[in-house]
Specification:
Elements lengths: L1 E8 L8 E4 L4 E5 L7 H10 L29 E9 L11 E9 L4 E5 L2 E3 L1 H8 L11 E2 L1 H7 L8 H8 L2 H334 L6 H12 L1 H4 L2 E4 L4 E2 L5 H8 L6 E3 L2 H13 L7 E3 L10 H9 L4 E2 H4 L1 E2 L4 H8 L2 E4 L2 H10 L5 E4 L4 E2 L5 E2 L10 H278 L3 H6 L7 H17 L7 H63 L3 E6 L10 E6 L13 H18 L4 E5 L7 H14 L4 E5 L3 H6 L2 E9 L2 E8 L2 H8 L1
Parallel strand pairs: 3-22, 3-23, 8-21, 11-12, 15-16, 21-22
Antiparallel strand pairs: 1-2, 1-4, 4-5, 5-6, 6-7, 9-11, 10-14, 13-15, 16-17, 17-18, 19-20, 23-24
Helix pairs in contact: 4-17, 5-14, 5-16, 5-17, 17-18, 18-19
Organism: Natronincola ferrireducens
Family: Belongs to the SMC family.
Subcellular location: Cytoplasm
C-alpha cells in the first residue's frame, strides 16, 4: 500500500484546487519560507482526523479554510482528499483504491467521506488502526512531533510505540468492552429495580382483572336482550322498503327506455357534430392552404423580380467587360501592325547585310593580294588606318546603341501613354467603388446604431423584467408565508373548534348532557348552555374570571325549574352523573352595598368581576349571583390589603388566579389553565378568526398586486420578443451589408492594387526612360570625341600617303572600299540588333494583352453561365407561379363546396334537437314520479337509520353484528325483568377498571421478560470480563515482543547515524507494560550518557530520526510524511539521513518537506511550492532523471 495522490481545495493557502500525485520512493517538497509547503503535511494530518487546532498551527478550526487576500475572496469551505493504493489489501476493505475525504464549512459543520460515501471519523480511525497511518501514528512527523517524542514526559511518547507495536486496535477494543461491561452493570441495576416494582403491582391488578371480566360477561348478556328489541323494528321497515323499491324499478325501466332513446339522439347529434367539426377543420385547413398559397405566390413574384434585377446586373457587367476586351483587341491590332513593320525592316536589313558581307569578302581578298606586295611600305599607314577603322567601328557601335535607345524610348513613351489612359479608367472605377463602400458603411452604421439602441432597450427591459420578477418572487414568498400562517391558524382553529364541539375541558356529566341536548331537541328545549359560553371576557382576565367562577363555569343555565328537573331526570335515567343547573326563574341577584363599592373604588386597579364580563341582559341574575360579590385585583399583595379593608366579606381574585376567600383563607399556586382554559379558548378562537380574515385580505391584496405584476411582466416579455425580432432582423441586414461591403472592399482592393501596379510600372518606365536618355547623351559625346580622334589620325596618315601615293593608289582604293563596307556592315548590324529589341518589346506587350484577354473572356463566360442559370431559374419560377395560381383556384372552389355541405348538415342537426326536446319532457315526468317514491323511501330509511344509530351509539353495534346475536322473543315482560336484574347486578359491582385485564397481562409478560433479561445481562457481563482479560494478555505479549525489536533497531540506527555511541529504550515499570512510560537514553560518540534535554538541537533531532527509522525497520508504514525534521542537522548528517531514506524507500514511501540540498538530491521526484499570486500557493512538479540528479549534485 502507498499514498497515490492528495487533492486540496480551499485548505489554508491553497485557494485553487490542486492535485499532487505520488509514486513509490522519495518525494521532496521544497519552496521558500512562507510559500505554504508545510500546509501539505497539515492537510494530510487534517484529513486523517486531526482535531487539535494547535497541531494544525491555528487558533481555531475555521483557520484551515482559505481566508482570502486583497485580490481574492475568502472561501466558504475547505476540502482535502487522500487516495491510497490498497491493492495489497492492507486495509480491511474490499477496494483496491481507498479515498478518504474531509470537508469543513465556515459554519463549523464537518463531513467525512470514504470512497465518496458519507461516514464517521470513528470509521476512518478504526480502518487505519495499527497501520502506522493516522494523526497519532508515526506516518506524519514534524517539528512538533520531534519535540513530543523527546518530551520530558515519557508517557507522552507512549502512543507512538503503541501504534508501532500494533496494539492500538486491541486497546480500542478493550475500551469499548469496558464501556459495554459498565453499561451492562448499570442495566442490571435498573432491571432489578423494575422487577421489584412489577412484583408489587401484580397482586392488585389480578383482583381488578377478575372483577372486570365479570362485568364484561354481564354487559354482554344485557346487550343481547336490548338489541333484539331494535331488530324487530328494523325488519318491519325492511318489508315496506322492498315494496317501494319494486315500484321504483318499474319506473326506472321506463326511464331507461326513454334515456336510451335520448342517448341515441345524443349519439346521432354527436356524429353530426363530429362531421361538422371535420368539415370545419377541413374548411380551416383549406383556408390555411389558400392563404399559404397566396403567400407562396407573393414569395415567388418577389423571387422573379429579384432574379430579373440580378439578370440586368449581369448584362451590365458583360457589356463593361466586352468593352474592355474590344480596347485590348484594338491595342493588339496596333501593336501587331508595328511588329509586322519591324519584321519587314529586319528582313530587308538581313538581305542588305548579306550582300555587303559578300562584297566585303571579295574586296578583302583583292586587298590582301595587293597588300602582300606593299605590306612593309604601308605598315605604319595600316596601323593608323586600323586605328581609324577601330574608332569608326566604335562610332558605328555607339550609333547603333543610340538608335536602339531611341527606339526603346519611343516604346516607353507609347506604354506610358497607354498606362495613363488605363489609369484614368481604373481611378474612375475606384472612385465609384469607394462611393459604394461609403454608402454601405453608412447603411451599416445606421443598422449598428439600431442594433445598439435595440440592445440597450433589451437590457433596460430585461432589468425591469428582472425587477418585476424579483417583486413577484417577493410577493410569492409573502403569499407562501401568509398561506403557511393561514394554514397554521386554520389548523389551530380546527383543533379548538373540535375541542368546542367535543366540549373538551368539561367534566363527563356536563359533556354527556350537552351531547344529549344536541341530539334530542325536546331535551334541549329551554337549555341556554353552560356559563362559559354565555359570556365574553376581555384578554388578560380569563384566568381571574375562570378562577372566580371555579366549577360554576361548567354550570348549565336553564329557562326555568321544570327544564332543570327534566335534565336531572334524564341524567338519573341514563346514569350519566351529576351536574349543577341554574334556572333563570329561581336565581337570585348578589351585589355589593354602597360601602363596599366605595372601598373597591379606593383600591388600586381593582375591578368588580361582573363589570369585566359581557353577557346578554337576560342572564344578569346568573352572573350577578356568580360574580356580583367578586373583586379582581392586579396581584396578591393588593388583594390581601383589599380583603382587610372589606373585612374578608368578599371573594378577591388576582389576575394570575390567586384567591382570598370570604373569611380570610388564601388559595393559590401554579395555574392549571394556561392556554387551555375554557374562556381563553373562546378568546383565542375569536383572535384566530380575525387573524385568518386579515391574512386572507392581505393575501387577496398581494394576489391583486401579483396579477398587476404578471400583466406588466407579460408586457415586458412581449416587448422583449418584438425587440429580439427587430434585433434578429437587424443582424440579418448587418450580415448582408457586411457581405456586400466586404465584396466592394475586395473589388476596390483589386482596382487599387492594379492602379498601384500601373503607378509602379509608370514610375519604373519614367526612371528607365531617364536612364536611357542619359545613356544616349553619353554615347553622343563619345562619338564626338572619337570623330575628333579620327580627324587627327587622318591628318597624320595623309602625311605618310604623300610619299607613297603612286604606289598605293590602287591599294588605297581597295582599302577605302573595304573600310566603307565594314562601316556599313557594322551600321546594318546595329540596325538589326535595335530591330530585334523592338520586336521583343512588342511581343511582350502582345503577350500581356493576350493574358488580359483570356481573363476578361473567362469572366464573361462565367457571367454568361450565371446569366443562363438565372434565366432558367426565372422561367422555372414563372411556371411554378402559374401552378400556384391553378392550386389557388382549386382551393377556392373546394372551399365553396365545403361550406355548402356544412349548411345542409346544420339543418339536419336542428331537426334532431327538436325531437330530443320532446323525449326530455317525457323523462322529466318519469323523474318526478321516481322522486316522490324516493322521498318516501328516504323517510323510511331515515327511520331505519335512527335505529341503526341507536344500536351504534348505545351498543357500538352494526345491524349485521346485532343480527348475529338475535334471539326469538316470546315474552316481552320477562325480558324487561331480566334486563332490570342484570343492570342491578352491574351497578352492584361498583367502579370497574376495564384496562386492568390488559394491564395485568402486560405487567405479567414484562415481569417474565425482564427476569430473562437479567439472566442474559449477567452472562454478558461475565463474557465481557473474560474477553478483556484475554485482550490484555495478547497486548502484553505483542507489546513486549515488538518493543524489544524496536529497541535493538533504535540502537543500530543510532550508531550508524552518529557514527558510534549508543542508545536505549527503557520501560519505567515492566510489571505494567500497558500503561508505563518509556524512557529514551542517548549517548553520542565521545560524550557521557546524559539526559535528552542536555543534547544539542541537531543531536536531539538525529536521536528522534533514529527512533523513527528503528520503528520503520520493525513495522514499515505504507507512507511517511516528514516535515523539515532534518532542519537542525549539518550537511554530513543530512547526507546520512538521505541515505537512510533511500534504504527504507522500498518498503515505505516518503514525502519530505525540506530546505536541505542533500535531501533534495536523494529524492526521486520534486514538488515545488511557490506564491506567484500573493497569499495563494501553487504546485510545480519535477520528476528527476539521473542527469538532473547529477546537475543538482554539481
Amino acid at each position: 500500500m502507498y499514498l497515490k495522490k492528495v487533492e486540496l481545495h480551499g485548505f489554508k493557502s491553497f485557494a485553487n484546487k490542486i492535485e499532487m500525485s505520488f509514486e513509490k520512493g522519495v518525494t521532496a517538497v521544497v519552496g521558500p519560507n512562507g510559500s505554504g509547503k508545510s500546509n501539505i503535511s497539515d492537510a494530510i494530518r487534517w484529513v486523517l482526523g486531526e482535531q487539535s487546532v494547535k497541531s494544525l498551527r491555528g487558533s481555531k478550526m475555521e483557520d484551515v479554510i482559505f481566508s482570502g487576500t486583497s485580490n481574492r475572496k475568502a472561501l466558504g469551505m475547505a476540502e482535502v482528499s487522500l487516495t491510497l493504493d490498497n491493492s495489497s489489501q492492507m486495509l480491511p476493505i474490499d477496494y483496491e483504491e481507498v479515498t478518504i475525504t474531509r470537508r469543513m464549512y465556515r459554519s463549523g459543520e464537518s463531513e467525512y467521506y470514504l470512497n465518496k460515501s458519507n461516514c464517521r471519523l470513528k470509521d476512518i480511525r478504526e480502518l487505519l488502526m495499527d497501520t502506522g497511518i493516522g494523526k497519532d501514528g508515526y506516518s506524519i512527523i514534524g517539528q512538533g512531533k520531534i519535540d513530543e517524542i523527546l518530551s520530558s514526559k515519557s508517557e507522552d511518547r507512549r502512543q507512538l510505540f503503541e501504534e508501532a507495536v500494533g496494539i492500538v486496535k486491541y486497546k480500542h477494543r478493550k475500551q469499548e468492552a469496558t464501556k459495554k461491561i459498565n453499561a451492562t452493570k448499570d442495566n442490571l441495576l435498573r432491571v432489578t429495580d423494575i422487577i421489584h416494582e412489577l412484583q408489587s403491582q401484580l397482586g392488585p391488578l389480578e383482583k381488578q382483572s377478575k372483577k372486570a371480566k365479570r362485568y364484561t360477561s354481564l354487559k354482554e348478556n344485557l346487550l343481547k336482550l336490548e338489541v333484539n328489541l331494535f331488530i324487530k323494528e328494523i325488519d318491519k321497515i325492511d318489508l315496506e322498503l322492498k315494496h317501494i323499491h319494486q315500484q321504483m324499478d318499474m319506473l326506472k325501466k321506463s326511464l331507461a327506455l326513454q334515456n336510451n332513446e335520448k342517448e341515441s339522439y345524443f349519439t346521432k347529434l354527436e356524429e353530426i357534430q363530429k362531421q361538422l367539426d371535420l368539415w370545419e377543420n377541413e374548411i380551416e385547413h383549406c383556408q390555411k392552404d389558400f392563404y399559404a398559397t397566396q403567400g407562396d405566390i407573393g414569395k415567388k413574384e418577389g423571387e422573379v423580380n429579384l432574379n430579373q434585377e440580378k439578370l440586368a446586373h449581369f448584362i451590365e457587367n458583360i457589356e463593361r467587360l466586352e468593352k474592355e476586351v474590344e480596347d485590348i483587341y484594338r491595342d493588339n491590332i496596333k501593336v501587331t501592325k508595328q511588329l509586322e513593320e519591324k519584321l519587314t525592316q529586319l528582313k530587308n536589313v538581313d538581305t542588305s547585310l548579306k550582300e555587303l558581307e559578300e562584297n566585303l569578302k571579295k574586296e578583302t581578298m583583292e586587298y590582301e593580294k595587293i597588300n602582300e606586295s606593299s605590306t612593309i611600305k604601308l605598315q605604319d599607314i595600316e596601323e593608323s588606318k586600323s586605328s581609324i577603322i577601330n574608332t569608326l567601328n566604335d562610332i558605328s557601335d555607339k550609333k547603333s546603341d543610340g538608335n536602339s535607345l531611341k527606339t526603346l524610348v519611343n516604346t516607353m513613351d507609347h506604354r506610358i501613354g497607354q498606362i495613363h489612359k488605363d489609369r484614368i479608367n481604373y481611378e474612375k472605377k475606384e472612385e465609384e467603388t469607394q462611393k459604394k463602400i461609403c454608402d454601405l458603411q453608412q447603411s451599416l452604421e445606421t443598422v449598428l446604431k439600431n442594433l445598439e439602441k435595440t440592445e440597450k432597450e433589451i437590457t433596460i427591459i430585461t432589468i425591469e423584467k428582472d425587477r418585476i420578477e424579483n417583486q413577484q418572487q417577493d410577493i410569492e414568498n409573502q403569499l407562501e408565508i401568509i398561506k403557511n400562517q393561514t394554514n397554521h391558524n386554520q389548523s389551530k382553529r380546527n383543533i379548538i373548534e373540535e375541542m368546542e364541539r367535543e366540549h373538551d375541558g368539561y367534566n363527563r356529566s356536563v359533556k354527556n348532557t350537552l351531547i344529549a341536548c344536541k341530539k334530542d331537541k325536546y331535551l334541549g328545549e329551554g337549555i341556554y348552555g353552560v356559563v362559559a359560553n354565555l359570556m365574553k371576557v376581555p384578554k388578560g382576565y380569563e384566568t381571574a374570571i375562570e378562577t372566580a367562577l371555579g366549577a360554576a363555569i361548567q354550570n348549565i343555565v336553564t329557562r326555568n325549574e321544570e327544564d332543570a328537573k327534566k335534565l336531572i331526570a334524564y341524567l338519573k335515567k341514563h346514569n350519566l352523573g351529576r351536574i349543577t343547573l341554574l334556572p333563570l326563574t329561581s336565581m337570585q341577584k348578589k351585589s355589593m352595598n354602597q360601602e363596599e363599592l366605595e372601598i373597591v373604588k379606593e383600591i388600586d386597579n381593582a375591578k368588580i368581576a361582573i363589570d369585566l364580563v359581557e353577557f346578554h341582559n337576560q342572564f344578569l341574575k346568573v352572573f350577578s349571583n356568580l360574580l356580583g360579590r367578586v373583586v379582581v385585583v392586579p396581584n396578591i399583595d393588593i388583594g390581601v390589603k383589599a380583603a382587610k379593608k372589606l373585612h374578608y366579606k368578599l371573594k378577591i381574585v388576582t389576575v394570575d388566579g390567586d384567591i382570598i376567600n370570604i373569611g380570610g383563607s388564601l388559595t393559590g399556586g401554579s395555574s392549571t389553565f394556561k392556554g387551555n382554559s375554557i374562556l381563553g379558548r373562546k378568546r383565542e378562537l375569536e383572535e384566530l378568526n380575525q387573524s385568518i380574515v386579515i391574512l386572507e385580505e392581505q393575501g387577496k391584496r398581494l394576489k391583486e398586486k401579483r396579477n398587476i405584476l404578471l400583466e406588466q411582466l407579460n408586457n415586458k416579455q412581449h416587448k422583449l420578443e418584438i425587440l429580439h425580432k427587430q434585433q434578429q432582423e437587424n443582424k440579418i441586414i448587418e450580415a448582408t451589408l457586411k457581405s456586400k461591403l466586404q465584396q466592394a472592399k475586395e473589388e476596390k482592393y483589386e482596382t487599387t492594387d492594379f492602379i498601384h501596379r500601373m503607378k509602379r510600372e509608370l514610375q519604373e518606365l519614367e526612371e528607365a526612360k531617364k536612364t536611357t536618355l542619359e545613356k544616349y547623351k553619353l554615347i553622343e559625346r563619345a562619338i564626338q570625341d572619337m570623330e575628333e580622334t579620327i580627324s587627327q589620325t587622318k591628318q597624320m596618315v595623309e602625311g605618310y600617303e604623300e610619299n607613297i601615293v603612286k604606289e598605293k593608289q590602287q591599294l588605297e582604293k581597295l582599302n577605302e572600299g573595304i573600310t566603307k563596307g565594314k562601316i556599313k556592315t557594322a551600321t546594318i548590324r546595329e540596325q538589326k540588333k535595335s530591330l530585334l529589341q523592338e520586336i521583343e518589346n512588342l511581343q511582350t506587350i502582345l503577350k500581356f494583352n493576350e493574358t488580359q484577354l483570356e481573363e476578361k473572356n473567362k469572366r464573361i463566360a462565367e457571367i454568361n453561365k450565371d446569366h443562363k442559370i438565372l434565366h432558367q431559374v426565372i422561367e422555372e419560377n414563372k411556371i411554378q407561379l402559374q401552378n400556384l395560381m391553378g392550386i389557388l383556384r382549386e382551393l377556392e372552389k373546394k372551399l365553396e363546396e365545403l361550406k355548402k355541405k356544412r349548411q345542409d348538415l346544420l339543418q339536419v342537426d336542428k331537426q334532431k334537437k327538436e325531437s330530443l326536446q320532446q323525449i326530455e319532457e317525457i323523462i322529466k315526468d318519469l323523474n318526478e314520479s321516481t322522486y316522490k317514491l324516493d322521498m318516501k323511501c328516504t323517510r323510511l330509511e331515515m327511520q331505519q337509520q335512527s335505529f341503526y344509530n341507536k344500536l351504534w351509539e348505545e351498543y357500538e353495534l352494526t345491524y349485521i353484528q346485532a343480527k348475529n346475536i338475535r334471539e326469538d322473543i316470546t315474552d316481552n315482560i320477562n325480558i324487561g325483568r331480566e334486563i332490570k336484574t342484570l343492570k342491578d347486578e352491574i351497578k352492584g359491582l361498583g367502579h370497574i377498571n376495564m384496562e386492568s385485564i390488559q394491564e395485568y397481562e402486560n405487567v405479567k409478560e414484562r415481569y417474565e421478560f425482564l427476569t430473562n433479561q437479567k439472566d442474559d445481562l449477567e452472562k454478558a457481563r461475565q463474557t465481557l470480563a473474560k474477553v478483556i482479560k484475554d485482550m490484555e494478555e495478547t497486548m502484553k505479549k505483542q507489546f513486549l515482543e515488538e518493543f524489544i525489536k524496536i529497541r535493538k533497531n533504535f540502537n543500530d540506527v543510532f550508531i550508524k547515524l552518529f557514527g558510534g555511541g549508543k542508545a536505549q529504550l527503557v520501560l519505567e515499570d515492566e510489571k505494567d507494560l500497558l500503561n508505563c512510560g518509556i524512557e529514551i537514553i542517548a549517548q553520542p560518540p565521545g560524550k557521557k550518557l546524559q539526559s535528552l534535554s542536555l543534547l544539542s538541537g541537531g543531536e536531539r533531532a538525529l536521536t528522534a530520526i533514529s527512533l523513527l527509522f528503528g520503528i520503520l525497520l520493525v513495522k514499515p508504514s505504507p507512507f511517511c510524511i516528514l516535515d523539515e525534521i532534518e532542519a537542525a542537522l549539518d550537511d554530513a548528517n543530512v547526507n546520512r539521513f538521505a541515505g537512510f531514506l533511500q534504504e527504507l524507500s522500498p518498503d515505505t514511501q516518503f514525502v519530505v518537506v525540506t530546505h536541505r540540498r542533500g535531501t533534495m538530491e536523494s529524492a526521486d521526484a520534486l514538488y515545488g511550492v511557490t506564491m506567484e499570486e500573493e497569499g495563494i500557493s501553487k504546485i510545480v512538479s519535477v520528476k528527476f532523471t539521473d542527469e538532473m540528479n547529477n546537475e543538482i549534485a554539481s
